[in-house]
Amino acid sequence: MSTYLRLRLPGALMLTAGALAATESAASAIGAGPAHHLPIFGDVYSPLDGIRWLSALNGHCVIQPWQQHTLLHRAVTHRCATHPSVILAINAKAAALFAAGFVPFAGLRLVEVAVNAQTKKGRSFAALRSVEGAPPPLVIEIGRATGELNKLGHAAGIRKGQRVRLVGPDVSQDTLALGGKGAGKTLWINSVLLQTLQQDCGALVFNVKGDYDGTALELARRAGRKVRVIGFGEGAEKINLNNGISPEMGAAYMSALLLLAGGQDKGAMFWNQTGANLTRGVLGLLQCFPYRYSFPGLYRYLFVKAERAEVDARIAELLTKWREAAKSATGERRAAIVEQITYIEGCILEVANFHEQTHDIQSGTRTHLSMILSKTVVPEVENAFFLPDEGDGKPFRFESLYEDGDVFVINCPLQEYGLSAAAIMAFAKLQFYAAMEKRRIRKDVNRTRRVGLFIDECQEITTCSREGMSDHTALAKSRDTGMFSVWATQSMSALTAKLGDEMAAALVANLRNRIVFRSENKRTIEDVLYLLGQIEFDRKSTSETRQPGSWFKSKGETHAPQLQAVANPALFRSLRASHALALLSIDNESADDVLKMAQVFV
Ligand SMILES: Nc1ncnc2c1ncn2[C@@H]1O[C@H](COP(=O)(O)OP(=O)(O)OP(=O)(O)O)[C@@H](O)[C@H]1O
Ligand SMILES: [Mg+2]
Q: What pTM was computed for the model?
């Protein structure tokens, strides 16, 4: 028998005794049946009298006035004929018996609290909902605990049957789902997205695999929400990703995007640096011509000679004009013109520095930049993501995710546009982080609505660099920006192959909730086993010896504490479909178990 049942049984017996005592007090109130006289308690009725009295109660008692109902009428007459002190004594006894009847309730609650303290219970929704004045917290149900780790003695195990929910700030701990093909990641993400849409949240969904836009639309329909599809697809909105980005930010984004192409090794870092510097210089020049100020504009400047010649000639003209103007201007106006001239001269110098590099460095940098930029000039891509002027209707802004609770699906087919599509989505993600960062700093924007970020096959568009803005730095602030995110990939190896060991570790360190579906990937399994740690168990060995010539055996028993891993790799291979091992952070404490995951089929 489990500890829980052992503790619960006496409680249940007490509850029954209390209930019988309460019926007895009811019987004593009307003087039903023969009383047994006891020296201190006075007239005592058997519990059977109480049950008989209760069974005589029926619907008529409620409908008929008490004068007309025989039983209640008898109770009142009995009371009226009795001396007030006797009534007082009977009432006091009844109250005491009722109280005794409720003791088991309290007892059971205490037992539950004790058991839950041992087994880590997730916080309940109701408890948090009752915070006065505050909006209801976001609640995401992850799944239902099987109690398997608890059974194995894991200190952070969860009680079997517990509905595991992330509530409020726990959701912002961000979640990484790992698992092999067809293990159930997407079905689970569907469930989280649906729950997000059913609550008053914004959502940004990256359709990395190319088949998720239909699913997102269907989930939004079920939740009664509208989705704005951005980029490709029927009725999709066209946007300008370069909108509102300074050349410095453009360079920082380019550095992050180059990581997608070149990885994290030292050689690649060199190209990233030179590529980012060149981007800063050229974007600075292109700023003078708004219709050219975009990544496709950058591409044309770098790779189309005629375009570069035209921009350079027009910049020279502008500089001459500004220098003339500075001569005749005075005060603040003159200072502004001089500042503009100095800035553009700085950009020209940056571009000139690049052209002084060796031929190999120049062509290496161009090749790397071209990996990101080449497909941005494909007319459909340029039209979808780098529209010079904002399109008709509502201009696109990531801020509307938290201001209006919008739901965006970013659609850019990876299979068709490869690395450029990945770069465009990563770029959009960085823009989203910038909008969320603005919310963190500014006080005059909506600061309560949460925004969910959903990225299945995240290894394709993840950018982590030591400098500037990238995924792990944005995730580190997610609690403050009111963002929460769900990332999914097939394995830790898929992530490390893209990001390198160090940066993959930096990313997952910020994804505090880890959910591992069926997996055969060694790296994934080792990682989780390491997190689960070991438990100490008592190894008992018995021995029997018989002395020569003796009839009796002497028995010996030795105990030795030993360490053993909480789980073993077989656990991951044997996980049933729809089950996953969840390592969660609930209320800043670890809570781990094999869960039957919430799933939504579309
Ligand atoms: N609408 C559906 N109806 C029935 N079964 C489905 C449906 N969608 C998915 N499945 C099945 O459920 C299982 C889990 O699918 P899911 O798409 O969640 O896997 P996944 O982990 O995302 O895999 P992948 O890495 O290939 O994307 C698969 O066996 C799949 O065939
Ligand atoms: Mg999937």
A: 0.74
List pLDDT tens digits, range 324-383.
Answer: 999 999 899 999 999 999 999 999 999 999 999 999 999 999 998 998 898 899 998 999
Ligand 1 within 6 A of 186 CB? yes
Q: Whole-angstrom Cα distance, residue 518 to residue 508?
A: 19
Residue 183 Cα: closest atom of ligand 1 = 21
Does residue 147 line the site of ligand 1, with CB under 6 A?
no
The listed CATH number (3.20.20.100, 3.40.47.10, 3.40.50.700, 3.40.50.300) that belongs to domain 140-227+395-602: 3.40.50.300
- Check: CB of residue 279 under 8 Å from CB of residue 248: no
Domain boundaries along the sequence of the chain: 3-119, 140-227+395-602, 240-388
**Which protein residue's CA is at the shortest distance from atom 17 of ligand 1?**
186
What are 207-260's pLDDT values in tens digits?
999 999 999 999 999 999 999 999 998 889 988 898 888 999 899 889 888 877
Amino acid at site 538: D
| Ligand 1 near 355 CB (within 6 A) | no
Q: What values do phi and psi take at 57, rounded to 5?
A: -70, 135
CA–centroid distance, residue 578 to ligand 1 (Å): 10
> Residue 364 carries which side chain, given as an amino acid letter?
G
* CB-neighbour burial class of residue 431 (10 A; exposed 0-12, middle 13-18, buried 19+): buried
Q: Using most ligand atoms within 8 A of CB, pick from 176, 185, 187, 211 the residue to mutate for ligand 1.
A: 187
The secondary structure of 464-488, three-state, reads: CCCCCCCHHHHHHCHHHHCEEEEEE
Least distant ligand from the CA of 579: 1
